[in-house]
Design a protein that fits this description.
The chain is an alpha/beta fold and 261 residues long. 36% of the residues lie in helices and 20% in strands.
Length: 261
């Protein structure tokens, strides 16, 4: 059995790229400028108002000899930030001269980082999934956010996904372990023994190194993206992927009673 652990980072599309009626709808009922800015920030959570800026993926397979897991591939697909070539940050320079119509590759710490336009980035994700259609996906909150975001964003960009990530029902779906669902027993409540916490909280509670430990978290992705700090985002995304698999191993050892192997 092969596993694909994945995570995405997103950022709002430029507000002025929307029509006047769309802008009015997005800011409707905002009582002041502060609330209007909050609504603009929330745009990063919807595929209709945001774009994918990074997809982190790790392919993992069990070693039959040792019964341990081995990493087969560690990749981040990144989207070029909307800045002029003359003002590109040092982080972008590692990819070489900007050519947004073609992908660029950077290798570091046994990981591969690719950068291109958003459509190419999402296409590579679907190609990776098409290589092994029986691979079990592992995510944190993937069924509620990452999966539907990628599905809908693909349609908006004129692409057909290679796999239906929303197959099944809210409480019964196969070949995908969403750890947030598993650790809350599919309960959406914010109260009681199965209340939902963010990933940082779960990671620290289970004694794992949080992906936020190096100073970047999801709230800073847009700031970093606009500043051209795409490698910082990509490395953060892969740290998220790595920590997600560490959390999966804990869940699999102590709480898995038969789902997805």
């Amino acid at each position: 059995m092969q596993y694909i652990v994945f995570d995405i980072e997103t950022s709002p599309l430029p507000f002025d790229s929307f029509s006047e009626s769309q802008q009015e709808y997005l800011l409707r009922n905002a009582k002041d400028e502060e609330e209007a800015e909050r609504k603009k920030s929330d745009m990063g959570l919807s595929p209709l108002t945001a774009q994918v800026v990074c997809i982190g993926m790790t392919r993992i397979s069990p070693d039959p000899k040792t019964n341990e897991f081995k990493t087969d591939r560690n990749i981040a697909f990144c989207t070029y930030p909307p800045i002029d070539e003359a003002s590109e940050s040092d982080e972008l320079s590692v990819f070489g001269k900007s050519d947004r119509e073609n992908s660029k590759l950077y290798k570091h710490d046994q990981a591969k980082y690719y950068i291109s336009d958003e459509k190419w980035v999402i296409q590579q994700f679907w190609k990776e999934l098409a290589e092994d259609r029986n691979a079990t996906l592992i995510s944190f909150n993937g069924r509620n956010f990452d999966a539907p975001f990628l599905m809908l964003r693909s349609a908006l960009l004129g692409m057909r996904p290679s796999r239906n990530l929303m197959d099944g029902t809210r409480y019964n779906y196969s070949r995908h372990v969403d750890l947030l669902d598993e650790l809350t027993y599919y309960n959406l409540s914010q109260y009681g023994a199965t209340r939902r916490f963010n990933f940082d909280f779960y990671a620290r509670a289970f004694g794992l190194v949080s992906p936020k430990a190096e100073g970047i978290d999801g709230s800073k992705v847009t700031e970093y993206f606009l500043a051209g700090k795409i490698l910082s985002i990509a490395k953060y995304c892969l740290r998220d992927v790595s920590a997600t698999f560490e959390l999966y191993k804990i869940w699999n050892k102590y709480l898995n009673f038969g789902k997805n192997g």
